[in-house]
Design brief:
Strand content: 25-35%
Distance between the termini: 30 Å
CATH superfamily of the largest domain: Beta Polymerase, domain 2
Strand order of the largest sheet: 2-4-7-6-5
Shape: globular
Largest sheet: 5 strands, mixed
Helix content: 25-40%
Radius of gyration: 18 Å
Number of helices: 6
CATH topology of the largest domain: Beta Polymerase, domain 2
Number of strands: 10
CATH class of the largest domain: Alpha Beta
Order of helices and strands: HEHEEEHEEEHHEEEH
CATH architecture of the largest domain: 2-Layer Sandwich
Length: about 200
C-alpha cells in the first residue's frame, strides 16, 4: 500500500464519526446551532482565528460528522491543548493536521439534545479548503467529496506529463510544486483562482 492509499484509508477511518467514541450522526436542523456553539468556543480560544464549515456539512439531511476549516495562530498543538482543558473528548491527528472532538449537539431551541457529534477541526487556509473540500447535497450528486479531492490530486500530480521530474501536490494550505517527488519550499499557492489558472495552463 503506497502513501496515498494509506492516507486515504486513514481519512475513511476517521470520516463519519470514527475518531472519538460515543458520537452519532446529526440531523440538518441541529447543524447550524451546533456550529455556532463551536464557533463561539473557537473565538474564545483565539479571537483572531478564521473558520467556516466545509464539505457537505449542513447540506445533507443528515451528516456523520461536522467538518470545520480553521486558521489559527495557535496551530494544531496549541488548539488541541486548549481543547483538552474542556470536558470534550479530544483526538489529535498530526497526519491529517486536524483535531476531532465529541461535541454536544444543539437543537434549534438552543438546548443540548443529549447526543454527541464528531467535529473535525481541520487546520489550513480557509478559502482554499472551502474550494478543495467543496461538498454537495444528496440531490446534487451521489458521490462523496473525497472523490473530488482525489481527482484534483491526480490532476495536479500528472498534468505536467512528467510527474517523475516535476509535479504538484496539495495539502490544506494550498498547492505546491515538487521536483523529483520533493516539495519545493516557498512556492505555495493558496488562491483557488490562481490554482485554476495553473491547471488551465496544461
Amino acid at each position: 500500500m503506497n502513501k496515498a492509499q494509506m492516507l486515504y484509508k486513514k481519512v475513511l477511518l476517521q470520516e463519519g464519526g470514527n475518531a472519538v467514541a460515543g458520537v452519532t450522526s446529526i440531523v440538518k436542523a441541529n447543524v447550524e446551532p451546533t456550529l455556532q456553539r463551536v464557533f463561539s468556543i473557537l473565538d474564545e480560544m483565539d479571537p483572531g482565528n478564521n473558520h467556516t464549515a466545509i464539505g457537505s456539512t449542513g447540506l445533507k439531511a443528515k451528516n456523520g460528522d461536522l467538518d470545520i476549516a480553521v486558521d489559527t495562530s495557535l496551530g494544531l498543538a496549541g488548539l488541541t491543548a486548549k481543547l483538552k482543558e474542556t470536558p470534550y473528548e479530544v483526538n489529535m491527528n498530526k497526519g491529517l493536521n486536524q483535531v476531532s472532538i465529541g461535541f454536544p449537539q444543539i437543537g434549534p431551541d438552543g438546548h443540548e439534545t443529549g447526543e454527541l457529534v464528531q467535529v473535525d477541526l481541520m487546520m489550513g487556509k480557509v478559502d482554499w479548503m472551502k474550494f478543495k473540500y467543496a461538498g454537495f447535497s444528496e440531490t446534487e450528486t451521489q458521490y462523496k467529496s473525497l472523490g473530488r479531492i482525489a481527482c484534483l490530486g491526480a490532476i495536479l500530480k500528472y498534468m505536467t506529463g512528467n510527474e517523475t521530474e516535476k509535479s504538484y501536490g496539495t495539502n490544506n494550505f494550498g498547492v505546491f510544486p515538487k521536483q523529483n517527488g520533493k516539495k519545493i519550499e516557498g512556492s505555495l499557492i493558496d488562491d483557488p483562482q490562481q490554482i485554476v489558472k495553473l491547471i488551465n495552463q496544461f
